[in-house]
Amino acid sequence: MKKSIITLLIIFLSLFLLPLFLKDPNLMNIEESLQDFSINHLLGTDQLGRDYLSRCIVGGRNSLLISLAVTLASILIGFLIGVLSLASKLVDEILMRLMDALKGIPALLFASLLSVTIGRSPIILALAMSTAFIPQCARLVRSEGKNQIKSLHYLAGLAMGHDERFYRFSITFRHSIPVLVNQIPFIFSSSIILEATLSFIGAGLSEDIPTLGGVIQSSRDLLMTKPHMILCPVIIILFFTLSFSLLGEKLKNKRY
């Protein structure tokens, strides 16, 4: 468990520190387009002469940042909706029907529509992607809150004079944390794949902000001539998703 977390931290730090020593990922030089491996360009260059290693490293960093924003937004918004649903039966009914409607819409379609119509900024993209995970987080918090409200220690706390609203919030918050923490690896790995898919179909960020999906999208025509330009970002995506999936399994096993 500790080794997995340390490994992920090293990867995070590497992705943030390595770009300081690499070439500008957006620096174009048509005269050096589609170069092979060399000392100046370890993974060669793309069609516009941009250093491919820099684009992969910076793209991995940006994809992780977007996934982090999606994870935080999903957990925070989902927690608030889950807590608000405990206020009354009417509020619970309204919010849960909204969550059902949101869950019924394909995440890829909804996120692509939002990012294309509202804007293609990182914040808009992260919020659009988080709609795929908010309903699940909200329902988990709601379920945990309902279980705690029925418990004897909650009733005992009210009998001791605790404010009902504040005590309901605090006890739900305290018992929802382990449940939401277990969701972090799943949301993180899923959002990396979702971002890559959105970028591949042209609904992700603009090309001046490299992401792993964007790097794959811009290199798709070179699959037969320069397969490494597709394989490198794909391998990074697989590594990220497998790492966070394994971390999620360890968190689950540790809890149960």
From TrEMBL:
<feature type="transmembrane region" description="Helical">
    <location>
        <begin position="64"/>
        <end position="86"/>
    </location>
</feature>
<feature type="transmembrane region" description="Helical">
    <location>
        <begin position="228"/>
        <end position="247"/>
    </location>
</feature>
<feature type="transmembrane region" description="Helical">
    <location>
        <begin position="184"/>
        <end position="205"/>
    </location>
</feature>
<dbReference type="GO" id="GO:0055085">
    <property type="term" value="P:transmembrane transport"/>
</dbReference>
<keyword id="KW-0472">Membrane</keyword>
<dbReference type="InterPro" id="IPR035906">
    <property type="entry name" value="MetI-like_sf"/>
</dbReference>
<dbReference type="Pfam" id="PF00528">
    <property type="entry name" value="BPD_transp_1"/>
</dbReference>
<dbReference type="InterPro" id="IPR050366">
    <property type="entry name" value="BP-dependent_transpt_permease"/>
</dbReference>
<keyword id="KW-0813">Transport</keyword>
<feature type="domain" description="ABC transmembrane type-1">
    <location>
        <begin position="60"/>
        <end position="248"/>
    </location>
</feature>
<dbReference type="InterPro" id="IPR000515">
    <property type="entry name" value="MetI-like"/>
</dbReference>
<comment type="similarity">
    <text>Belongs to the binding-protein-dependent transport system permease family.</text>
</comment>
<dbReference type="GO" id="GO:0005886">
    <property type="term" value="C:plasma membrane"/>
</dbReference>
<keyword id="KW-1003">Cell membrane</keyword>
<keyword id="KW-1133">Transmembrane helix</keyword>
<protein>
    <submittedName>
        <fullName>ABC transporter permease</fullName>
    </submittedName>
</protein>
<keyword id="KW-0812">Transmembrane</keyword>
